[in-house]
Amino acid sequence: MDPTAGTQTDQTDRSAAPFLDLPIKEVIARFPQVGAILSEYEVGCVECGLGSCLLRDIVGIHDVSPEDEEALMARISGVLFPGQDLRLTLPRRTRPEEATAEPTATAGTAATGSTATESKGGTKYSPPVRQLVGEHVLIMRLVNLIPRLLAVLNLENPADRELVLQGVDFIRSYADRFHHAKEEDILFKYFDETKDIIRVMLTDHDTARAHVRAVEAAVSAGDRAKVAEHLEAYAALLTEHIKKEDTILYPWMDRQLSTAQVGEMFRRFAETEAATGPDFAERYTQSLERIEEIVRKREESEGGV
Amino acid sequence: MSAFEGCPGSRMIDLRTPETADDGAPSVTAPSQLRQWPIQLHLVSPAAPYFQGADVLLAADCTAFAVGAFHNDFLKGKSIAIACPKLDEGQEEYVEKIRALVEDARINTLTTVIMQVPCCRGLVALAEEAVSRSSRKVPVKAVVVSLQGDVLSEEWL
């Protein structure tokens, strides 16, 4: 699904059009002023660790209002083509229901001429996406525990090795097989998975899995430095990954999903959860609570409390 | 123009503007998106084939008159039930009927569309109560439209 899917012809001048297909990072590198302009519109491409989104997708991904979009593209055009009468214009964005609807202009309420889809207000996450965000909360509890765990970790102690392996089990079972599987096997399938924003998320998942394998190997080898290196890298990766999903990817996806797709996804998530067992999430919540409790007690004993 | 300062749902408001007057332009026929009968919530049956696995629209009576493009913007692709949470009797039966849609007809989603007037919120409350009583859950969306048919809010509950 294309975030800029639209029904109108792109009105961008022919000689300006190639700029729309450049990664935003490349545009900002060549024209730093573009980054400053985007920041003014609360589009954080300068701070983003990715920067692989195309210029044409930025407006859709960040849900810039139509009014701001026009002004934003005019200012960027002014930077890219100073002194020239060239303009970048994006196709009109549409929602799924709107894209399949018959033209309704003549049927709009006469007093306003508006349609329901044009005046859509701010939205919350859809219920299935809200589930994923809720799972992030639990995953982030483990991620936030990692520095505290490392501060008290003694790999020569069998109990500490077991503690790390419990964390590995939580990551593999809950964060990966349960949570990431919902994303990879269900959510992402509703979209064009060749889009950079999704490919980067999939790469993050693979990188996270590699860190977890490395942690497990380091525990077996009794290599505390490697355990710390890969747990810290995992924590940094997941912190940024979840932030991007919660603030950019999921809201963008929710804007593209039709009502019927949301219902279907909700049902498929429920089937996935039923397959893992009714108490799966509760079991791993309790597992995390045990890890937190052990770390807290270790902190207290080492702090002489 | 306000005739009295009573219930906001009954307050008299004149929405006429020059644009709403007959300007002599030819009328355009929009095809109906209705794919069932009956539609009143007391009359519909959750066992009806058009409810099975459907995306269901639960619309407050007045909404179809406020929104000019109601059929294409809200009804298209959905099965429907209509009700008035302010004036209709038997609202406990409404809750049970909606619960049966969720649990027995295994509907895919439930979208409530209501007017902005406070008493219309009761329809969303009925839907939420019905889903809370159901052992099966579905996504519920609430859309609020203004007296002139603009969407004031649209959010998943």
What can be said about this structure in brief?
With 305 residues, chain A is mainly α.
Name of the CATH class of chain B: Alpha Beta
Q: What name does the CATH topology of the largest domain in chain A carry?
A: Four Helix Bundle (Hemerythrin (Met), subunit A)
Distance between the termini of chain A: 56 Å
Q: Outline the low-pLDDT stretches of chain B.
A: none
CATH architecture of chain B: 3-Layer(aba) Sandwich
- What spatial order of strands do you see in the largest sheet of chain B? 2-1-3-4-5
Choose one word for the global shape of chain A. Answer: elongated
DSSP helical segment count of chain A = 11
List keywords for this structure.
heterodimer, A: 305 residues, mainly alpha, SP0561-like, Four Helix Bundle (Hemerythrin (Met), subunit A), 11 helices, disordered N terminus, B: 157 residues, alpha/beta, Rossmann fold, 5-stranded mixed beta sheet, 23% helix
List the helices and strands and how they pair.
The complex is a heterodimer of chains A (305) and B (157).
Chain A lengths: L23 H7 L1 H9 L14 H7 L4 H15 L15 H5 L26 H26 L5 H28 L10 H26 L2 H33 L2 H18 L3 H23 L3
Chain B lengths: L54 E6 L2 H4 L3 H6 L3 E5 L7 H13 L5 E7 L5 H13 L6 E6 L5 E6 L1
Parallel strand pairs in B: 1-2, 1-3, 3-4
Antiparallel strand pairs in B: 4-5
Helix pairs in contact in B: 3-4
Describe this structure in words.
The complex is a heterodimer of chains A (305) and B (157). With 305 residues, chain A is mostly helical. Chain A has 11 helices and no strands. The N and C termini of chain A lie far apart (56 Å). Chain B is an alpha/beta fold and 157 residues long. Chain B has a single domain, classed as Rossmann fold. In chain B, helix 3 packs across helix 4. Chain B is globular. Chains A and B meet through helix 6 and helix 10 of A and helix 2, strand 4 and strand 5 of B.
